[in-house]
Write a structure and sequence with these properties.
The chain is an alpha/beta fold. The chain is 26% helix and 24% strand. A seven-stranded mixed sheet has the order 6-5-4-3-2-1-12.
Amino acid sequence: MKQLVFVVWLIMCGQSIALAHQASVTYVANEAVLITNGDKKVLFDPFFHQAFGTYQLVPADTKQAIFSGTPPFDKLTAIVISHAHGDHFAADEVLKYLQKYPSTQLIAPQQAVTELMALPGAKQILPQVSSVKLAFNQAPKTIELPGLVIDAVRIPHAGWPSRAEVENLVFRVTLTNQGTSTTVMHMGDADPDDDHFLPYQDHWQKRASDAALPPYWFYFSAEGRDILTNIINVKKSIGIHVPIEIPNQLKSSDHDYFSKPGEIRKLDESHKH
């Protein structure tokens, strides 16, 4: 009997370890997503106040869980901001979170960091902040933190050439934990034009992404679909920035997308080093 109990215990422990290290993407709201690989956790675009009557705000209980450090939002390795628009970034809440959790790092475009640093008390979080300043057509930048490799490329905001001043960044983040790694690409509000992505073809090819998180409008154009399928070197895509009222074209398609806060997608087996 003792042997049977021990065997069952081993099986349960093995399952728990496997689940703990299963990489996943959890949908928070709009373009806010949590990427996990074991104890490495990156939260994209989690704090914002604007929904423009169209998009989903972070549910109150989820926001409370983030600030309380309730699993799965405990011990965040980093917060990453795609761009400083009101439906992606709220400087006051970012500051509040970083003040509470000094071990969490922030990676954000210069425009967001400038807005953040204008707030009273922001200087104390400077050691936690990595500012990314990229001009159009500038070579990608890489930031390395323990367990993270973060590549940033400036891709124009949707609607190009309008909003040309917006520092929209496409981030490719690799999370490494206990010899395994997973890579996810968060595309912010990128414009779905091949010409924006082709100059960085070599960059995309250097590291495959297990999943891309494009704004859903990439699915609606041949160029957008070509970027996802042939240019940026991703295994699959999951659409984000989906309105509360899901477009019929999206609902009737076979494309994957997030629409309900709390949805989870497991990623492929993490790659062993």
